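Quick start: read one record
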Amino acid sequence: MKTNIKFLALLFFCSISAFAQSTKEEQELIQLSKDKWQWMADKNVDKLKNLFDAKAKFVHMSGTWKTDEELEIIKTGSIWYKEAKVHDTAVEVSGNTAIVWNRITLVAMVRGNEAITEFTVTEVYQKQGESWKMLALTFSSVRDTHQIKK
């Protein structure tokens, strides 16, 4: 009987530990995503270059680019991500892969014209060593009433 109680107690504490770790990773990814939006607004390509995997893909309304192209677009201001107002976020972590969904209102300058657009943005990350690297970022145009299912 004592063995069963000890086993159940150990199982309970392991479950709590796993939940806390997951929550910690999720919070880390949410913060990383927020930081990314700020770095994009600031045109901080040095920080973004460290975040983006060299083979990452970026899907926009007008095309798909690789990392070097995305960094050049941000650096030159061809697209200036002035502000991303994040309304809702969901995160799922599976092993060393994570997906972050953000429902945002994006205020951007696109080739000299201001655009305000509702998007759900899907970000795919992979844990490489001690840090997360972004593998993909996809903008999906949605209505402002769109909600991310959690």
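The chain is about 40% helix and 45% strand.
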